[in-house]
Each structure stands twice: as C-alpha cells, then as structure tokens.
C-alpha cells in the first residue's frame, strides 16, 4: 500500500503498548448511545481524553456520528489536537469525501463497517483511506462479514461483539470475538470491540490471538474512569 513513512501511527501505538507489557486498549469517547443515553454527563471531552492517555490507553477512539451517538467532526478535532495519541474515527462513512474530512479533523485510523457498505464501496473507501494516509479498522460482526473483510489487505480487523444494525441495543459478549478469532488467519491484527468491561474479558481476547480491545461505555460509565482504564491496561500482569 501507498503509505508514507510514519503513517502507520495507529497500529504502531497498539504494538508499542503490547511491547511495553500493557494490554493494547483503544479507549473511546462517545457522547451518548441509543441504549445508555448521555455518556459524557457534562464532562469536558478533552479532560476525559487526557485522563485516558494518562491512565495508559494505547490509542483513543471518537464516535463522530451525530444522529444516534451525538458526535461530530468538531469533537474529533478537539480531542485529536489535545492528545498525543493516534485517534480512530468511528462513523458511518459511505462517501470518499468523508474520508478526507475525517483525516483533516485529525483521525489516524478510520472505521469501515462491512454491514453498512457493499463490496465495491468498501474496497473504494479502503483505498481512499490509504490515499489519505489513514489506516482502517474494518469492522465485522459475523462469519459472512468476516469472509468479505479478509479479502482486503487489512491494517486492522475489528470484531464487534454487538450487532451495529441494532445500534447497541443488544447486549453483546466477548464470546463473539473468541468464536470468530478461530477463523482469522495468523498475521491479521484483530481488535475486539464493544460490550467489554472486565479485565478478564480483555485478557481472553489477547490470549486467543487478538491484538487489542476497544472499550467505550464501561469506561465512560465508571465512577472513576482513570481506574477503569488502568485496570484494563494492566490485565496482562499477573
Ligand atoms: O461502548 P462499548 O460497548 O464499549 O462499545 C464501543 C464501540 O465498540 C462502539 O461504540 C461501536 C462499535 N462500532 C461502532 C460503529 C459506530 C458507532 C459506535 C460503534
């Protein structure tokens, strides 16, 4: 792929965390979710982001989708310019121009959801992201989506424990990741996303061959988000 020097910032940060003995955690900022309602509770996203960084997160994620999750590009811009870590942009991207807008707002990695795109769109957006110097997290929920995703030259595969078509109203369990990981060839870096709260669940993902976990709600709803991040990051220590 046509990526210049220094542009694999997101996967490099995950690897650096792992090499340092930390569980590679992508800590997510999400204004609200259809299931949980308001998740910021009046907090300043920049303060939250800095807390996540200081507590050992490898990377951050910002949900920029507006109608269901209350996000926007300004939020991505604000957070990405306030922290030194690479940021994943989570949104329902379908158009090439959205790729560049998110790059300009500071994203290092872009979510692409197999469930939301037809094959030619997925391929085109994946290539466009690389042209814009972004890595991608290609998200799947089941075997059929996984098979499609694996035909791409993946930077990162995301296994969503929830079915995004239900907009997070379903419970989701890390068992979905553990099951699908059996069908992921070695060498494909895989992130388990959603419905993770316990360090043990995060550890199971790594022990099953995963490269990291993405956690939003459990950190945002914790009475002490810094402690919640630290517990997850330390999940590989015995
Ligand atoms: O809050 P959780 O259960 O920890 O999940 C985070 C993340 O995986 C979830 O926000 C998400 C996964 N895929 C998405 C696509 C769009 C918006 C949001 C998402």
Automatic annotation (TrEMBL):
<dbReference type="InterPro" id="IPR011060">
    <property type="entry name" value="RibuloseP-bd_barrel"/>
</dbReference>
<keyword id="KW-0028">Amino-acid biosynthesis</keyword>
<protein>
    <recommendedName>
        <fullName>indole-3-glycerol-phosphate synthase</fullName>
        <ecNumber>4.1.1.48</ecNumber>
    </recommendedName>
</protein>
<keyword id="KW-0210">Decarboxylase</keyword>
<dbReference type="GO" id="GO:0000162">
    <property type="term" value="P:L-tryptophan biosynthetic process"/>
</dbReference>
<dbReference type="GO" id="GO:0004425">
    <property type="term" value="F:indole-3-glycerol-phosphate synthase activity"/>
</dbReference>
<dbReference type="Pfam" id="PF00218">
    <property type="entry name" value="IGPS"/>
</dbReference>
<dbReference type="InterPro" id="IPR045186">
    <property type="entry name" value="Indole-3-glycerol_P_synth"/>
</dbReference>
<dbReference type="InterPro" id="IPR013785">
    <property type="entry name" value="Aldolase_TIM"/>
</dbReference>
<keyword id="KW-0057">Aromatic amino acid biosynthesis</keyword>
<keyword id="KW-0456">Lyase</keyword>
<feature type="domain" description="Indole-3-glycerol phosphate synthase">
    <location>
        <begin position="7"/>
        <end position="232"/>
    </location>
</feature>
<dbReference type="InterPro" id="IPR001468">
    <property type="entry name" value="Indole-3-GlycerolPSynthase_CS"/>
</dbReference>
<dbReference type="GO" id="GO:0004640">
    <property type="term" value="F:phosphoribosylanthranilate isomerase activity"/>
</dbReference>
<dbReference type="InterPro" id="IPR013798">
    <property type="entry name" value="Indole-3-glycerol_P_synth_dom"/>
</dbReference>
<keyword id="KW-0822">Tryptophan biosynthesis</keyword>
<comment type="pathway">
    <text>Amino-acid biosynthesis; L-tryptophan biosynthesis; L-tryptophan from chorismate: step 4/5.</text>
</comment>
């Amino acid at each position: 792929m046509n990526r210049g020097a220094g542009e694999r910032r997101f996967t490099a940060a995950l690897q650096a965390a792992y090499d340092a003995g930390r569980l590679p955690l992508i800590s997510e900022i999400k204004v609200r979710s259809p299931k949980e309602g308001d998740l910021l509770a009046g907090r300043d996203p920049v303060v939250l982001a800095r807390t996540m960084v200081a507590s050992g997160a490898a990377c951050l994620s910002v949900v920029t989708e507006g109608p269901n999750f209350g996000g926007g590009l300004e939020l991505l811009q604000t957070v990405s310019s306030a922290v030194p870590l690479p940021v994943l942009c989570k949104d329902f991207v379908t158009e090439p121009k959205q790729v560049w807008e998110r790059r300009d707002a500071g994203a290092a990695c872009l979510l692409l959801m197999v469930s939301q795109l037809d094959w030619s769109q997925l391929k085109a957006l994946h290539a466009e992201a690389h042209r814009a110097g972004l890595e991608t997290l290609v998200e799947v929920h089941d075997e059929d989506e996984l098979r499609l995703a694996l035909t791409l030259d993946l930077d990162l595969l995301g296994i969503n424990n929830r079915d995004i078509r239900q907009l997070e109203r379903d419970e989701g369990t890390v068992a979905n990741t553990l099951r699908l990981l059996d069908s992921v060839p070695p060498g494909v870096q895989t992130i388990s996303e959603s419905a993770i709260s316990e360090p043990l669940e995060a550890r199971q993902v790594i022990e099953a061959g995963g490269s990291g976990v993405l956690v939003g709600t459990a950190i945002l709803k914790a009475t002490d988000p810094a402690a919640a991040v630290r517990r997850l990051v330390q999940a590989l220590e015995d």
